[in-house]
Amino acid sequence: MRILFHAVDANPAPWLADLQAALPQAQLRVWEAGDDAPADYAVVWKPPAEMLRDRVGLKGVFNLGAGVDAILQLGDALPAGVPIVRLDDAGMGVQMAEYVTWAVLRYFRRFDQFDAQQKSGQWRFAKPHDKRSFSIGILGLGVLGQRIAAALSPFGFPLLGWSRTPKDLPGVACHAGSAGLDAFLAASRVVVCVLPLTGETTGILNRDTLSKLPHGSYLINVARGMHLVEADLTALLQSGQIAGATLDVFRQEPLPAGHPFWQEPRITITPHIAAVTLRGDSVRQIAAKIGRMEAGHDVPGLVDRTRGY
Amino acid sequence: MRILFHAVDANPAPWLADLQAALPQAQLRVWEAGDDAPADYAVVWKPPAEMLRDRVGLKGVFNLGAGVDAILQLGDALPAGVPIVRLDDAGMGVQMAEYVTWAVLRYFRRFDQFDAQQKSGQWRFAKPHDKRSFSIGILGLGVLGQRIAAALSPFGFPLLGWSRTPKDLPGVACHAGSAGLDAFLAASRVVVCVLPLTGETTGILNRDTLSKLPHGSYLINVARGMHLVEADLTALLQSGQIAGATLDVFRQEPLPAGHPFWQEPRITITPHIAAVTLRGDSVRQIAAKIGRMEAGHDVPGLVDRTRGY
Fold first, then answer.
1. Domain range for residue B24?
2. Chain A partners within 8 Å of B254 (Cβ)
3. Are residues B106 and B73 in the same domain?
């Protein structure tokens, strides 16, 4: 079995070593420009089109992340019919839950306000928000969204969710489809975005949708920068419609010097760290899925190219 | 039944109204200097000695908080044999859990560092700590400490606890007594203090004990300012032994202008807000306990004056 590896921004050596240990029978190689020798599987993060175009005999492409937008952008360069498999969780669920729980608690308990007070030497009491109306609306109810809901549930926040197709989750008021979006927005004091990036979800966080939230709401985006119309957010923060935003992802990354977000105190910026791909968990998952595919079984995490995730 | 009320810093009117609604047969009054007319119960927060001294016929004193250090300081002014009852939880457990979970996640995921980077316009990746060695040690395993352990447990942090007398909690490595303190400290990367303030626990967070933590540890104090020797913490932060501290309580509150903590970026200051007494929950609890006492039953939360909590 031949496995081709290419991951932007990653040192390939430890990945190859771990994959080799998990799949002793495999022949592993790092893809380099011009390599069109046969391969059974590709393990990739943001691969160039040339790596996959016209590649015959490929049995599967494993994406080293939950979001497959970068790979689907290759379009016709992706060999037709080859299964694309995303990571289901691989340690990302708990990381997302940590990030979102921290951000929600920070706003709910006004730790952002206490931080500003500390910097000016002020000791001033402030009540938490009213928890009954501090509802958390999760955009995207896949593995990550469900893990976030489970983490927030013990704290007693009212929970809502929205997904493309109807879901039924205990303790979460579930809305679905474009018909269900307005009701979801009207009832969400905090919106958490963990949607996949598709044609339908690009720009879903915009002046129109964010204006339907209750006045003084909060936004947490841990999905993709392209979900948010950035100039719209700046305007809504200035009007007070949005009270604060915690953003891990941006249209351009690294966020360029001079971008207005750097100067907006109501925006909290993190450098795309909400959930990093963990090598150990990912390798175990890929090895197990290759084993299932070789044995002719289905694997979870198969991407629907038309749906976009 | 006559109930005497006195609570520093609280507006008595809504308390009296809620107590009256919960105990329709009671005669309620706010204590004023010179009032030594009979009373069956006292509901108090930081009462003056004159309110309780030589008071005959009192059947119980209800403390509007979990910590009873302020009332026990009255010493001989407390009528002998009168039960002193603290609030068991009354909404404080979940608030403590929110505060500590926020503070732990903030350090674990390095959000303090990202905040500093944002202020200087830097986009720089930083890994979380290694979770297997990011152990959380909880000093005090009563209602509040147990609630904190339960909130942290789903995130997978190794949990330790220390209490005066041995306890056995699932998923928490429990240590007890002075003999167990060193082993607890040596294994705790984050120390969370929720101890009651007694003669034995005053100053328990000092140069000697905090030096036994792993290098680069974190301190979260949501109990009482007197647990911490403040000058020792400043020195340990400067040496790097302690990497950061989140403090909700101080020896003098409000924290005075000019106190060195205001100028120490590795200290996060909140104005004693970790858990506020919630009127609705507290009134329900006090009314239920008075009902039990009138019927001759035991009540939970009875204070042992010798033990100090």
1. 2-90+277-294
2. 123
3. no
